[in-house]
Amino acid sequence: MHVDQLYLDLNAFFASVEQQEEPRLRDRPVAVIPNMVETTCCIAVSYEAKAFGIKTGTAVWRARELCPAIVLLPARHDVYVRYHQRIHDEILRHVPAVAVCSIDEFTTTLGGRDRELAAARALADRIKRGLRETIGPAVTCSIGLAPNRLLAKIAGDMRKPDGLTWILPAEIKEKLAPLALDELPGIGKGNLARLRNAGVGTVSALLDLDPRHARAIWHSVAGERFLRALQGGPYGELDTRRRQISHSQILAPENRSHPMARAVARVLLEKATRRMRREGYCAGRLWVGCRDRSGGRHGVEVRLPATQSDRALLGLFDHLWRRIEVRAEPSLKKVSIGLSDLVAVGARQGDLFIDRRLDIERRDERLAKAVDTIKDRFGASAIRYGAMPKGLAAYTGGRIAFTRIPLPEDCMQ
Ligand SMILES: [Mg+2]
Fold first, then answer.
1. Ion ligand 1: residues, Cβ under 5 Å
2. Please, what are the domains in the chain?
3. Is residue 105 annotated as a catalytic residue, yes or no?
């Protein structure tokens, strides 16, 4: 009767933080949206709003139709990051180590006596009580206990809000069978279609497969790993090596023209390069993308000798952006930038034949570090490369990516 992993998922996190901050919002239907326009969609929905059929991803106009009394609030990512950190600290009062999976999800490996189901349940209750007392009653979580992280996450998803669910090794089949295939984390449209084509229509049928068969269906070893974990085997530790740093933003209406969108994308790139330097990486690839008003997606990328220089990256950005402008409609909805092929600074290969270029590069990197120091002291907008266009809508910083928790300074303007 043992479980090895505890998975904690906060319920309707952004919306419940707003309810915690503002008691009159408790028990009311609340949705958090990226910016105050009718064309955007809800990014977090309180359980009172869910009762009306509103979900994450529901368009604002549709949410109003489903529930005219809904309270719509613009996202305040800096506040959510502060809560995330306090929650992290509280969990650490109960367990020796915790891995952060996203802004609202944490997992910890149980050891010793805590692996015994009764003890694990008592631990989960203590964490819940601790969060209630130190964070507040409006912020609740669902906890899953299981033989590995994948099954613990699935268990946690089974009862929301404020659930505590477990899956023992002997119960895997019985507890997973009622789920639909696409309720399993990691099974998206593509995998679902491939599973159907292979004659696998239910979770039970998937559990009966030989894991090597899953590798063939997925066209990847990831399928085999996934199925082995679903059957109760070990699941890879969280991969903490960084492969890319990316930022994107849904544009406020004032920022949708090409010059404004370009300015937003440049700010995102400055944030990403600063973060990359802080973490000690250089990028070997830069990409820039956008979505235009009719949904067209355009992306361009370039490979480069690994660098962490703002000047080099912003120069390449300008070049890539000109290619975006030719392709995209005049009005854009979203911009994204990404730095990938990351290598640790120490592991970077020098280009021995172009000493001069390397000299310039190092000088630029020193300049970038000086700019970082100024931003650390006086805020991210204290110094910028190039002028910002007039009328740029505020709050271009600190959006929360699914797997990356911004530091408080990322949220500063
Ligand atoms: Mg959640």
1. 9-10, 104
2. 1-169 (3.30.70.270), 177-239 (1.10.150), 244-411 (3.30.1490.100)
3. yes
